[in-house]
């Protein structure tokens, strides 16, 4: 179904320099990040997850642009923004996304930002590491 010319004109009027609505959403998300980070981190006192940041940004984007941003799109914008910065956003942590099996102790160690930061390798336990990309 073709786009309505009126709808198309409104989008171009809202941001005449954009290549489409996604570019404008990206810029709006990045522009609101400092305020959202301050909100979810208690002014920098606490760490925050990507999901909490999403829930802080989502209502603002809905109010300003009138569109609902998806979780997948938001994650992509944040990943691209962090790549441009060359580091993670200050205070952010990622949820656990895998497991490290420690064969000598039988431990299953979840792999997320906080658990990886807290992990301390035991002396003289490893001389090789096997990395498997996919679980299952």
Give the gist of this structure:
The chain is mainly alpha-helical. The chain is about 50% helix and about 10% strand. The chain has helices at about 5-15, 20-40, 50-65, 70-85, 115-120, and strands at about 50, 90-95, 100, 105-110.
What does this structure look like?
It contains five helices and four strands. The strands form two sheets. A two-stranded parallel sheet has the order 1-2. The N and C termini lie far apart (41 Å). The chain is 49% helix and 9% strand. Helix 2 crosses helix 3. The chain is mainly α. It folds into two domains: 88 residues; 43 residues, no CATH class.
Give the arrangement of secondary structure elements.
Layout: H1 5-14, H2 21-40, E1 48-49, H3 50-65, H4 71-85, E2 92-93, E3 99-102, E4 107-110, H5 113-118
Parallel strand pairs: 1-2
Antiparallel strand pairs: 3-4
Strand share of the residues? 5-15%
Enumerate the spans where pLDDT stays under 50 for 5 or more consecutive residues. Answer: 12-18
Q: Averaging pLDDT over every residue, what do you get?
A: 80
Count the DSSP helices. Answer: 5
**Biggest beta sheet summary:** 2 strands, parallel
Return the structural class. Answer: mainly alpha
Number of domains: 2
Shape: elongated
| Number of beta strands | 4
The helix content, as a percent range, equals 40-55%
How far is the N terminus from the C terminus? Answer: 41 Å
Radius of gyration over C-alpha positions, nearest whole angstrom: 20 Å
What string, H for helix and E for strand, traces the elements in order?
Answer: HHEHHEEEH
Instruction: State the strand order across the main sheet.
Output: 1-2
